[in-house]
Specification:
With 160 residues, the protein is of the alpha+beta class. It has 4 helices and 10 strands; from the N terminus they run βαβββαβββαββαβ. It has one domain: Alpha-Beta Plaits (2-Layer Sandwich). The radius of gyration is 15 Å and the shape is globular. It starts with a strand and ends with a strand.
Length: 160
């Protein structure tokens, strides 16, 4: 079984509900077992800032599924929520990212694992720390050390 962490984000059309519904759909993928899920976090946008705040979360799953089949399934879930890729860092109905897949380091045309910017983003690292406090990121070190070395960002844990 693979140990996999997935980041979820949304900032359009009831994003809290979208995150919760997306977690349900991910659990329905054949052979996927939900191990844990973080709280929901409200975070300001990065890059393109003229848009609503995001709701973010991280889940841990276990599954024998390979990373390419998982990616296909996650893209299908995004499409089910009306995801259209129009603008980098722009508004989105749902964003699902494979953050970590065991200790795999992969850099292909379609997928990079670990996620290429997760070590810079508290909206990913804080939920990861919540559900897996001893976790380390290949080539970057412990999640807690990464968090300690980043500037403070406006991230609010919200009741889910």
């Amino acid at each position: 079984m693979h140990k996999i962490f997935i980041g979820l984000g949304s900032n359009l059309k009831n994003p809290q509900q979208k995150i919760k519904s997306a977690i349900q759909l991910i659990q329905e993928i054949d052979t996927v077992n939900l191990i844990s899920q973080s709280s929901l976090y409200e975070t300001p946008p990065i890059g393109f800032i003229d848009q609503p705040h995001f709701i973010n979360a991280v889940i841990e799953i276990s599954s024998p599924i390979n990373f390419s089949d998982l990616l296909v399934n996650l893209l299908r879930v995004e499409e089910d929520f009306g995801r259209i890729r129009m603008q980098k860092n722009g508004p989105r109905t749902l964003d699902l990212d494979i953050l970590l897949f065991d200790d795999l380091v992969l850099n292909s045309q379609t997928l990079t694992i670990p996620h290429p910017r997760m070590h810079e983003r508290l909206f990913v690292l804080i939920p990861l720390l919540e559900i897996s406090p001893l976790l380390s990121m290949p080539n970057h070190g412990s999640i807690s050390t990464l968090i300690a070395n980043l500037p403070t960002q406006d991230i609010k844990r919200i009741d889910s």
